[in-house]
Amino acid sequence: MAEVIRMPKMSDTMIEGVIANWLKKEGDVIKSGDIIAEVETDKATMELENYEDGTLLYIGVKVGEAVPVDGIIAIVGTPGEDYSSLLAGAPAAPAAAVEARAPTAAPVAAAPVAPTVDLSSIPAKAVRMPKMSDTMVEGVIAKWLKQVGDVVKSGDIIAEVETDKATMELENYEDGTILYIGAKEGEGVIVDGIIMIVGEPGTDFQPLLQQASAPAAPAPAPVAVAASAPVKEAPKASEVKASPSGIQADSKGGIIKASPLAKALAKEKNINLNWLQGTGDGGRITKSDVENYKPNAGGATGNFISGEESFEDIPNSQMRKTIARRLSESKFSAPEFYLTMEINMDKAMGARVSMNEVLPVKISFNDMVIKAVALSLVKHPKVNSYWMEDRIRVNKHVHIGMAVAVEDGLLVPVIRFASEKSIAQISAEAKELGGKAKNKQLQPKDWEGNTFTVSNLGMFGIDQFTSIINSPESCILAVGGIKETVGVKNGQFYATNIMKLTLTCDHRVVDGATGAAFLLTLKQYLEDPIKMFI
Fold it and tell me: Domain named Lipoyl-binding: which ranges (predicted)?
């Protein structure tokens, strides 16, 4: 009888494991005690031991893909044995993701599984969407580099995929001919969803789509509604013909293809379908084409009012979706409070001028803030902590996340071990990471592991603001701009420069006194920068 091999929990903090290397393949005979794979956990790369005797009938995870703890990774049994019921009963996390993306509708029954088909006998393999970052839920096909009919080998780059962090290359792990591509450019595919099938030419691959544990096709990507569609010159009334059945025909007598809803809407708006350029399949006119039609001046519809309502729907990028999801989770789960402190930047401004005269890189005020924050976190480790539901993790190392605004939203590259680096090293690394973020060249090692985040909007003229905590961190610092103002000392007015810092704290970890003590230390470093270097 076939048995399922699931992902074990290999550490106390492990949520999922990544298959680093398969040491066995489908069809191999294995025994209890055999090492079948290497698994990368949150702590280390470890060997995965098998506890079932039999033939490896099914491998459901490819190298580089992540599997949640207790998720199915393989099935062992007797050659030719039907194991489809084991997959059908598995938790269908990908299906839930698709359901969340779909329009509201009546529940759809799951497609029946054909129990008589032995998938292992089909000379083709499904290529699935890998999990390319720790927060990735789906990937969007930015560009296909191969097409149906191409011969591909393991290691070939087959596509470019837009994740929530960056656009990355998708590597193929199957040898053969591309028989099927399941997603067009611009469409989203959930993690573990089928994106293509590779095998021998002429193979009937439909059973792979029908019996896949993940959905066979990606959920439709949101469709952008153009602000204005290309229009044809409005024809003369004598050029418009009608077919005997009442379906409108074009000037050459051909029947115009349009959806019933488009026809009804065009009739309601008194728009002739000949004036429209269809954007649907085969030039079919859709409801959106009618809604977005703009008449030419002096044309057949020249009596229309020109002040028409218009809009453009822009599909959310993977980055924007993830920002929304993660910050919503943080905002509505963490009991936040805010502490604001004014910093006198007179000495810091003088110190910056002096440093830029001798250092090989130009030091910014943000570099000085990051250095001061890193040193302050060493003295106040509670602020450098994670909330982990059943415990608080106090981080002994200091990895500063640096919020960077990009076209699609916000990225947070990480300056690692910031407390141990010189201000010149911090400056050089910040410039490099900022450039990579704006060019979508960041890799997972560049954005993972931050223990505290700094968000600076001072360069945009913002005096003061609050930031949302980047979970599971306990705090985030919002940095405003330096503003020249009037101070009073001993009854005398004088010009001075003030910068406002606002610390957002998770009250489950950091209380008011702890947050205030951290800000006081930070104030001492910035108001007298020499203290950062002694």
Answer: 2-77, 124-199
* 320 burial type by CB count under 10 A (0-12 exposed, 13-18 middle, 19+ buried): middle
Provide the domain limits for residue 281: 228-314
- Domains held by the chain: number: 3
Give CA angle at 300 (296, 301), nearest 5°: 65
In angstroms, the CA 473 to CA 501 distance is 18
pLDDT of residue 240: 35
What count of Cα atoms within 13 Å lies in the side-chain half-sphere of residue 47?
Answer: 9
What integer pLDDT is reported at residue 309 of this predicted model? 74
Instruction: Write out the H or E segment, with its range, that includes residue 260.
Output: helix 260-269
Task: Examine the domain organization and report whether 258 and 354 are in the same domain.
Answer: no
| Structural domain contains residue 333 | yes
Q: Residue 174's closest CA among 396, 67, 25, 5?
A: 25
Q: What local confidence, expressed as pLDDT, does residue 178 receive?
A: 94
Distance CA 434, CA 436 (A): 5
The H-assigned helical ranges of 66-113 are 84-88, 93-101
Q: Are residues 192 and 291 in the same domain?
A: no
Q: Which of 314, 344, 359 is the last residue of a domain?
A: 314
Residues in the chain: 534
Statement to judge: residues 454 and 364 lie in one domain: yes
Q: At what angle do helices 512-527 and 365-379 cross, to 10 degrees?
A: 130
Contact by Cβ (8 Å): 68, 15: yes
Q: According to the model, what pLDDT value does residue 32 have? A: 82
By annotation, the residues acting in catalysis are: 507, 511
Residue 119 has a pLDDT of: 72
| Spatial separation of the C-alpha atoms in residues 362 and 48, rounded to whole Å | 49
**Judgement on whether residues 390 and 300 belong to the same structural domain of the protein:** no
Alpha helices in 359-503 (DSSP H): 365-379, 423-438, 444-447
Same domain membership, residue 326 and residue 300: no
Secondary element (H or E) of residue 394: strand 392-394
Assess whether 390 and 518 both reside in one domain: yes
Distance in angstroms (rounded) separating the CA atoms of residues 125 and 197: 6
Query: Could you tell me the pTM of the whole model?
Result: 0.52
**Do 262 and 385 have their domain in common?**
no
Gap between the Cα atoms of 428 and 434, Å rounded? 10
Structure-block tokens of residue 76: 């062992």
323's torsion region: left (phi>0), alpha (psi -120 to 50) or beta? alpha
User: What pLDDT does residue 485 have?
Assistant: 94
In this prediction, residue 3 carries a pLDDT of: 87
First to last CA, the chain: 70
pLDDT along the chain (534 residues), means of 10: 84 76 92 86 74 89 88 90 78 34 37 53 87 79 92 88 81 88 89 90 87 46 36 38 40 61 80 82 78 64 58 76 78 90 96 94 96 97 93 96 85 94 96 89 87 94 93 95 93 95 96 97 97 90
- Among residues 282, 317, 320, 313, the alpha carbon closest in space to that of 142 is found at 317
Per-residue three-class SS string for 365-377: HHHHHHHHHHHHH
- Under 8 Å between Cβ of 341 and 523: yes
